[in-house]
Amino acid sequence: MVLLHPADPKVALAQARLLTMDTAGADSNFAIAMGRLGVRSGWISRVGADPLGDFVLAAIGGEGVDVSQVKRDPHPTGVFFKHRDPASRTTQVLYYRQGSAASHLTPDDLDPKYFAGAGLVHLNGMTCALSASCAAAAVRAFELAPPGSIRSLDLNLRLQLWDVARAREALSPLIRRAHVLLGTVEEFEAFFEPEVAGEAIVAAAAMGPTTVVAKRGPRGAIGLIGGVPVSHPGFLPPKVVDEVGAGDGFDAGFLAALLERCPPQMALRWANLVGASSVSVPGDIQGYPTRVQLEDRLSTWPENEALTP
After folding, report:
1. Over the Cα atoms of the chain, what is R_g?
2. pLDDT digits (tens, 9 = 90+) for 200-219
């Protein structure tokens, strides 16, 4: 997608006269973050046969992500706006994606040969929210994941785009096939509605994933890995500027560590560090660290020990 946001983050969107154009979106954010960490990544989607589609392909491809499987489509490239809400001091997003090129992705857009050598196939729930054909393409992607590869899913509910009932219908088949399930604590609670508070992760693991991790922002993350409870505090970035994109970075940090066979606690440290790096600068992807930066910050950035419980 194309992202537009006020060039001056202190200016409200309604008063902004100068906007900055970037590329963003959960799937491409993840692919870019993985690339920064040294993992070869590819992105499968559709973009419009329009100048905005040209911009998206150039920007994502320029990050080293393989965009050879992205189709051009007669429908427009999706756009969204991001702005800082001064009242809540949080970043807000406005989506303009209905009928976009990406919403016309189909299972036929997925080349089985392209998946043959993949070590990881990663999906996110927002893709399924765009259309029935996108949801079918997501299922097909997991079917094409080769033996021995990791199948991972981020709930990424985005309830601006659909409701929880529709999300459950579309995502449950993917959860049953996933090895790794990620999401925020709030998303797990909304999706699984456990009778006992805090049991959503257990309910998620009961559906099949052997690794379930819930993100808690500055408080770090908790989860179940192989049935064993895990947790790790978050990192303290120099400042918090823009939270959007942090979850995609978290996913990349965690899964990049798994691909390197890091132990669970180290995987959580990588994940928390990439997420914290993301929020320290404006933009979805601008803060994702390189592998060298990751290694440096793991030893120099303080952890949020006070927020561990």
Report:
1. 18
2. 999 999 999 999 999 999 99
**Domain limits, the chain:** 2-307
What pLDDT digit, counting tens, does each position of 98-135 carry? 899 999 999 999 999 999 999 999 999 999 999 999 99
SS3 for the chain is CEEEEECCCCCCHHHCCCEEEEECCHHHHHHHHHHHCCCCCECCCEEECCHHHHHHHHHHHHCCCECCCCEEECCCCCEEEEEEECCCCEEEEEEECCCCHHHHCCHHHCCHHHHCCCCEEEEEHHHHHHCHHHHHHHHHHHHHCCCCCEEEEECCCCCCCCCHHHHHHHHHHHHHHCCEEEEEHHHHHHHHCCCCCCCHHHHHHHCCCCEEEEECHHHCEEEEECCEEEEECCECCCCCCCCCCHHHHHHHHHHHHHHCCCCHHHHHHHHHHHHHHHHCCCCCCCCCCCHHHHHHHHHHCCECHHHCC
The pTM for the full model equals 0.94
Q: Which of 27, 73, 109, 248 is catalytic?
A: 248
The answer to whether 248 is a known catalytic residue is yes
Q: What is the rounded distance in angstroms from the CA atom of residue 235 to the CA atom of residue 301? A: 7
As a whole number of Å, the end-to-end CA separation of the chain is 37
pLDDT-based confidence at 267, cuts 50/70/90?
very high
CA distance 201 to 153: 14
Please, what is the angle between helix 132-144 and helix 164-177, to 10°? 10
CATH of 2-307, one of 3.40.1190.20, 3.30.360.10, 3.90.1150.10, 3.40.640.10: 3.40.1190.20
Query: Would you say 89 and 70 are in contact if contact means Cβ atoms under 8 Å apart?
Result: no
> Residue type at 193?
E
